[in-house]
Design the sequence.
């Protein structure tokens, strides 16, 4: 935007100067009067160009400031993302440990159920054996 504005202002000034030179060449006889008018118009054109360039400079300064703010925002966002990434890595380790522990406890639960079933079967077998010996001692 700033370069485009600067180029337009520069082109406008060149066209104005060319038009003034053409008019000066075509009028010939009134050269002395024209020089005075030309100097005044050149001064006006020069001041207009200066004001235009100052406006462009201000616009460029604003753009630079906006770019700096955007850069600072990007830096802050990157820092936040890196912190979140580190936190997720540590949570991932905790989740892996939790998964291992749950798997281990599930295996122990299965082993405990099997042992309880075998103990119950042994108990019932013992009870049946005692009942058989008491009720049917001759068998």
Sequence:
């Amino acid at each position: 935007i700033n370069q485009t504005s600067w180029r337009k202002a520069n082109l406008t000034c060149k066209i104005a100067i060319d038009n003034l030179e053409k008019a000066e060449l075509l009028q010939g006889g009134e050269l002395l009067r024209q020089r005075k008018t030309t100097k005044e118009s050149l001064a006006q054109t020069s001041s207009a160009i200066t004001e235009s360039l100052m406006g462009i400079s201000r616009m460029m300064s604003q753009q630079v400031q906006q770019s700096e703010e955007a850069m600072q925002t990007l830096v802050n966002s990157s820092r936040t993302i890196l912190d979140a990434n580190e936190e997720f890595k540590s949570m991932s380790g905790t989740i892996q440990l939790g998964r291992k522990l749950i798997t281990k406890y599930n295996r122990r639960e299965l082993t405990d159920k099997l042992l309880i079933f075998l103990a119950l079967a042994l108990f019932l077998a013992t009870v049946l054996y005692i009942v058989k010996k008491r009720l049917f001692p001759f068998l």
Notes: The two ends are 111 Å apart (CA to CA).
